[in-house]
Amino acid sequence: MKQLNGKTAIIIGAASGMGKAAAILFASEGANVVLADLNVAGGEEAAGLASEAGPRCVFQRADVTSEADIAAMVSRALSEFGRLDVTFNNAGVGGRWGRWRRSPSRIGTAPRMSACAPPSWGSSTRSARCGP
Question: What class is the 1-90 domain?
Answer without folding.
Answer: alpha beta
